Amino acid sequence: MEIRQIMEEKEFAELSMYASFAKNSKGRQRDEEPCDVRTAFQRDRDRILHCKAFRRLKDKTQVFLSPQGDHYRTRLTHTLEVSQIARTCAKALQLNVDLVEAIALGHDLGHTPFGHAGERVLNELTPGGFAHNRQSLRVVDCLEKDGKGLNLTFEVRDGILNHKTSGHPSTLEGKIVRICDKIAYIHHDMDDAQRAGIIREEDVPREFREKLGMSTKERLNTMIHDLIASSYGKNDICMSDDIRATMQDLRQMMFRDVYTNPIAKSEETKVRLLFGVLFDYYRKDPTRLPEKYRNAIEEGEQVEVVICDYISGMTDQYCIRTFEKIYIPRAWDVF
């Protein structure tokens, strides 16, 4: 018996009856030989971890554009925090940790440079709109490995696509990531906002603090424990009504005081200009795009969609350098 088969049988013996089992996966878009060591979900996790889009997350904005400090979150550290929180919950609930980790590591692969500011601009520029969850699925299905995609399992792809608030994941593992994504960013975005001096702990309404905790650390602990306690032994992932409602109120406060705060968002008008100029530059002459994107157009992809693929895949700094290379004059080297 192969190691993979032993691990698959171990899942049946140890996980909850409500868990997703690797052996029962609905499969991949293209058939392939199973790994002799890893389960299907472990293999998906590894493919995501080693892909180019994952590495680019280290230089993509979470909330603060080009923050002056080493301890502010990036899109990569956000992803890792979602993964850690979701894995803790999945382990406690005896669900499939490998599936949870794969979904969590892949959920933001399609995010734009400059965070949600970039997402909003691309949504306006791209025919049919733009949403980072759909783009994340496009990354793993179509863009990685020179257009071949990562050929992930249905369960991982479903979790990536449905991680937004409006999503409806078909597995409990996907539901865990969907909620833990929000728990993570509420926690760490408030931590970053306090570090930046945008809000103080005393600015958090007392009723929120009394229900969730008197610090960011305590509130994170409360939300995680409530999710585990409320979901234990159920064929659902949920939070208690009181904690869920308070978490939503805290989230609304973050949107009001942090995500739309003039200090945090003072650079967003520049993002709009930057994206708009680059989009127009490549739309006027698509031959200016790198070869693999030109090839995609020749193979029938819509020009605007391909430009969106290119810009959304950029890191913050690469986007700035591309703009500078095109539009900022440079001195001649006369020596």
Q: What are the key terms here?
A:
335 residues, mainly alpha, 60% helix, 0% strand
Provide a short characterization of the protein structure:
The chain has 335 residues and is an all-alpha fold. It has 16 helices and no strands.
What does this structure look like?
- The protein is flat.
- It is mainly α.
- The N and C termini lie far apart (68 Å).
- The longest helix is centred in the middle third of the chain and has 25 residues, at 172-196.
- It has helices at residues 3-14, 40-50, 52-56, 75-92, 97-106, 115-125, 132-143, 154-161, 172-196, 206-212, 216-231, 241-259, 268-284, 291-298, 303-312, 316-327.
- It has 16 helices and no strands.
Q: What is the secondary structure topology, with strand pairs?
A:
Layout: H1 3-14, H2 40-50, H3 52-56, H4 75-92, H5 97-106, H6 115-125, H7 132-143, H8 154-161, H9 172-196, H10 206-212, H11 216-231, H12 241-259, H13 268-284, H14 291-298, H15 303-312, H16 316-327
Mean pLDDT score, rounded?
A: 94
Order of helices and strands: HHHHHHHHHHHHHHHH
Please tally the helical runs, counting DSSP H or I stretches of 4 or more residues: 16
Q: Which structural class is indicated by helix and strand composition?
A: mainly alpha
Helical proportion, percent range: 55-70%
Radius of gyration: 21 Å
The biggest sheet amounts to:
none
Strand content: under 5%
Number of strands: 0
The unreliable regions are: none
Distance between the termini: 68 Å
Oligomer: single chain
Shape: flat
